[in-house]
Structures are given as structure tokens and as C-alpha cells.
What does this fold into?
Amino acid sequence: MSKRYKFRFFAHSWVSDWNHGNAHFLRGLVRELLRLGHEVRCYEELGGWSLSNLVKEEGENAIHAIDDFRRIYPELNIHFYQRGEHFDEFLDRELQDAEFVIVHEWNDPYVVNGILQRKEKMGFRALIHDTHHRAYTRAHEILKLQLHLFDGVLAFGEAVTRIYRDGFGMQHTWTFHEAADISLFKPVDPMTDKPNDLVWIGNWGDEERTRELMEFLVQPASALAGRKIVAYGVRYPESARHALTEAGIEFRGYLPNPSTPAVYGQSCLALHVPRRQYTNGLSGIPTIRVFEALACGIPLLCSPWEDVEHLFRPGEDYLVAADGQQMAGEIEHLARDERARAQIAANGLETIRARHTCAHRAAQLVEICEELGG
It folds into this structure.
């Protein structure tokens, strides 16, 4: 029996997943650590970007999303804090009995460095958790953190691990992939008639995949008149919404992550279009949507990305289309072939449950703590 640890997790947001996919995995990871008997406290700064935008942009839907989060994750012990004159007292109080402090990279450097300055005196170990492409695209932001004071990094892909090891000179690095919370993400009761032929769930964002979305979502939809294609997400400019409408795609806006399994259950196929960074310099890193879609037992179609870390079985767990024309053909073929859809869905679900659940990652994190001399 492993030792029970006292974990403290600092993340940008736990309550909101508005344009904040990191919250998906973190929620599930903490839930599994709690099930293993560890003590976990979660910290979030008041007035954070994601939660503020959720409330500002989504109105009454934001209230429902927050209520659903509280209902689905009642066990998460979330503490809010504010920077200011009492911040030092807050850190002294909350970290005094900590054993492992996990700091997600999307925290303000002032907060991160304040935590690290207490490490030696209080005796806890500190790990930075990186689930983004900033280490590759905006390294100067990561270098504002006192990386030399961390005991190691948990990086969500080998390419990011190499950056921290070879570029930033960190001695202890672990590749720590995201994974699916299968207590939430699982196949729903099969429906005789699925109203959606294809669903795309993702944010338009900062022009990081505009060209790819035009080729692998908009163009195929334009060629598939009569197919019901729906899209969810935030930060879609007017030009993007117009393109979706012209292609016959129904845009439905923000989708709280806990509502995703139900939407997958109403759809024949799901689409994954990686951001450009994950097909070049950070090639091979699957984002959280891949794990969650496969966990829900829905056949997944992807624009080109290479599984260089051999996490899945390409061509069996999911299909990759080389271009927009091939994507349109795959959508049309699979929309007609229920047997093929069932086989791909079963393959993907099998791989997730065997290798890529939040329970797998919780066990890995405990092993890392033991390796560090916990």
C-alpha cells in the first residue's frame, strides 16, 4: 500500500472550463487521487480569466455550468485566493503541512515564485505541470518562473519534456499525458436515431488552426449537403461564424465539458483538428479531446497528426484524413456504415480503458512522488 500524500494543486481555474481545456484533466486527476486516499486541496485565484469570461460571455448559461460543476465534482476541495497584502499569510497557512505542491504552468509568475520561495523552509516538493505549447512558442513566459527551484516537471508530451530537459536544463522530467475521466466520459445509452452526423467541439481561438478548420471542417461540410454537422466552442469571430453558416454547419456556442458525453451520444462521428503547434514542433501530443471522445465510444476522425509516442493504434482507434476531400469521403462513408463505426468506437474505447484513464495518471503521479523520496 502506497503512502497517503498531502497534495496542493494550483491551477488557473477549477470551476470554469471556458476556453480552458486543462481543467478537464485536472478535475479527473484530483478525483482519482482522492479515491486513492490522498489529501488534496485545489487553489484558484479569484477573478481568473476563464471564470470571468464564462460569466461575462455566457450569462445565465454560466450559472448552470457552475451549478453542474459543483454537482458533478462535489469532492473537490477548492480554495480561492487573492493577491494583495494578505497573500503571504495565505501561502504560509496553506502550505505549512504540504508534501507535494503541483503548480500548473498557467499561473501568474508572482504566485508561482511565491510558492517556490517557501519550499526549502517548509520542506515540500514542487512540480510544474505543463499542458500547453507555451514552452515551445513563448518560452520567455515560462522563464519568468524560477524553474531551478522546482523538483521536476510533469509535461504532457515527450516534445515538451525535451524542452524542459534540454532547453531549460531541468534535471527531473516526466512525460505525464492527459487522460479521460471515465467516471464522466463513457458511452451513453445507444440511440436508435442519432440526429447529428458529425460533431466538432473546439475553440476557434487565436488563429492557431483557422486554415485547418477551413479545410477539414468547413470544406467537407460544404460538400456534404444534407448531412447534419454541428459545432461547439467559444471565441469564434464573426467571420468564422459566417463561414460555418455558409457551409451548413449549425454553431451552438459554449459547451460545458460535463455536457460533452451527451452530445457525443447524439452524434455518429466526432472530428478532431489539432492546433498547428501539435502537428509540427510538438508533433504527436494528443490534446484532451482525443482521450475524451474515444472514452465516450464515438468514432473519431482526425486531420493529420502523427502519434509518435505510440499512445494509440492509428487506423484502428481513430482515422486520419490527409486532406479536406478525403475527410468528406470518410464522413460520408462512415455515416452510412454503422458496422465500421461500431468497430472503430470499440477499438478506441478499449485503448482508453487499458492505458489512458485519470486513474492511470493518478497512479503514475504517486509513483513519481515515491521516486522523489516522498
User: Anything to note?
Assistant: The chain has a mean pLDDT of 95. The chain is about 40% helix and 15% strand. The two ends are 14 Å apart (CA to CA). The CA atoms of residues 68 and 258 lie 8 Å apart.
